[in-house]
Amino acid sequence: MSSIPEYMTAKHRECDEVFCQAEAAVAERNWPLALTNWQCFASELTEHLAQEEEVLFPQFEQATGMTTGPTQVMRMEHQQMRALVQELDNALAAKAKDEYLGLAETLMVMMQQHNMKEEMMLYPMMAQHLSDGDQLIEGFKGSKVA
Amino acid sequence: MNMSGLSFNALPPIDLPFRFFISAPLFIIACALLILFSGEALWLSRWQANMLALTHGFTLGFLTMVMMGALLQLLPVIGGIGLAKPRLMASTSHILYSAGVIALMLNFIFAENWLTISALILLSLGFGIYLCAIIWLLVKKISQSDAINGFRLALTSLVVVLLLGVLLLASRAGITMPFTLDKQFTNIHALFGLVGWAGILIISVSFQVLPMFHVAPNMPKYIRQYLSVSIFIFLLVYMVYAEFALGLIVISHGVFALTLFYVINQRKRKIDDTSIKYWQLAAATLLLLNVLYFLPDSFYRSADTPLFIALPDKTMLLTAIFIYFYLLSVIQAMLLKILPFLSYTHLQQRCLIDFSAMQFIPHMHEFLNKKQGLALYYLHILSGLSLLAVICEPSLYVFFAACLLLEFSWLLLLMIKCMHLYFTVSQKIHLSNKA
């Protein structure tokens, strides 16, 4: 059984890995491989964000009574990340290498900053406040939320 | 529990680090002019007055200036806590510090007592205000990490450098000291500055930025926990057993270099990146320094050298390589990342509420063009090689000065372009928010 910080942090690393593979493929102009990796990343990201927004954040907000605090900032950043993902989709469809790589660098640093905040602050706080955290993670493992 | 760490209100306004960054290349441009007007004699000894002006222009005017600006942003991001009154603190310390470095350089060149005293007062105040604010932050509850602990050691070293520097300047101004300030005293001052302040700070920053920007694994735990503190202890030992401690310091940096190579090699983001090239250059430099340091003395300035040419003065050669190919390389690697990163992050935070304004924000490569960043790297290597050439053959000083002028004017231009774009977009977002 894994805890919230453990499981969600591992998911961040998985997303990073497949994101880097897509980026490397674009740099080599290997468009079919880039598309496969990119789609894989996009679906991993969608699932991860949904697990946070639909399950973990509401549970945390309920347990702590904080609805305008850190989870709200995280939701707004998710929205910005989705916008960048959309732009990356377009750049990939147009096979615009330089545009894609510039956007990829941008999304990468945004995700890293975002992840750092979640991993250093939010997940440990969740582990502290959500008594059924381990069961929630087991639920994620068993079924796809998104 | 500290909830403010998740908010970005802790970030100080961007123009504060920007003013530190943009001042830095100006000091090297001044150094290039100094080299040009000093002629060959400058390169005869590290104790030449103009050489002291030059080394302080590089170390205080450029390296420390950039690091002071970067720490203003890094501490809130890594530590999750903001500075008190950032604008007042940063603007005041920046003005006093810049004036202090100028006075210090002029004091070496013209040897006027009033310049020495001005440098003493301005630098003490400039550093004093900045250090008090940062130390307040580090003493206050701040999230613990190996990087933060390294920052503490680096800042402690800076305090040592400053205190020794104050004593040296006071003695230069004619104030009698109860003890002799010999060359060993100056060596301690220099080593704490280069290895303690700049070196430990770079090591600590690498723990954070390599995983973050390049999706590299964390440095091994024992390196993160013990490397900075070991180097700091060796610096203390240096005061008593100089030769022995210096060897250990050089070896520690060799270990850091191998770790850097390992971590860089294991990174997941393999696309071409100029910052990575800089880090690799820095790591290779540290290994080369190990070789050069442990070469027998007969290789240096000796008629019976086993090489086809005797190496120049060992201290000057090793210090120049350490500063130029290691410290300056990493600082430039950082600037190439931090300039677009800060510009983007600050704008992005302003669009959290007004999501529609996101459309105005350019991507990272628009803030700093990749090819232009790569050109800076090649210019850096060229001027580094010209530095080595001038140490071996002082008559080549014009070549070195020209390379420096070229490299740092280019860096200045890249900074201006990035900042100009930031303020243009910022204005658009401002208008959008008002609409």
Which labels suit this protein?
A: mainly alpha; Four Helix Bundle (Hemerythrin (Met), subunit A); 5 helices; B: 435 residues; mainly alpha; 76% helix; 0% strand; globular
Structural description of this entry:
The complex is a heterodimer of chains A (146) and B (435). Chain A is mostly helical. Chain A has one domain: Four Helix Bundle (Hemerythrin (Met), subunit A). Chain A has helices at 4-27, 31-64, 70-93, 97-129, 133-142. The two termini of chain A are 22 Å apart. The mean pLDDT of chain A is 89. Chain B has helices at 15-38, 49-79, 86-110, 113-139, 146-172, 183-214, 221-238, 242-265, 274-294, 314-350, 364-367, 370-392, 397-434. Residues 1-8 of chain B have low confidence and may be disordered. At the A-B interface, helix 1, helix 3 and helix 4 of A face helix 10 and helix 11 of B.
Strand percentage of chain B lies at: under 5%
Give the beta-strand count of chain B: 0
Total beta strands of chain A: 0
Low-confidence stretches of chain A: none
Largest sheet of chain A: none
Order of helices and strands of chain A: HHHHH
Shape of chain B: globular
Q: Which band does the percent of strand residues of chain A land in? A: under 5%
Output mean pLDDT of chain A: 89
CATH superfamily of chain A: nmb1532 protein domain like
Secondary structure elements and pairings:
The complex is a heterodimer of chains A (146) and B (435).
Chain A: H1 4-27, H2 31-64, H3 70-93, H4 97-129, H5 133-142
Chain B: H1 15-38, H2 49-79, H3 86-110, H4 113-139, H5 146-172, H6 183-214, H7 221-238, H8 242-265, H9 274-294, H10 314-350, H11 364-367, H12 370-392, H13 397-434
Helix pairs in contact in B: 1-2, 1-3, 1-13, 2-3, 2-6, 2-10, 3-4, 4-5, 5-6, 5-7, 6-7, 6-8, 6-10, 7-8, 8-9, 9-10, 10-12, 10-13, 12-13
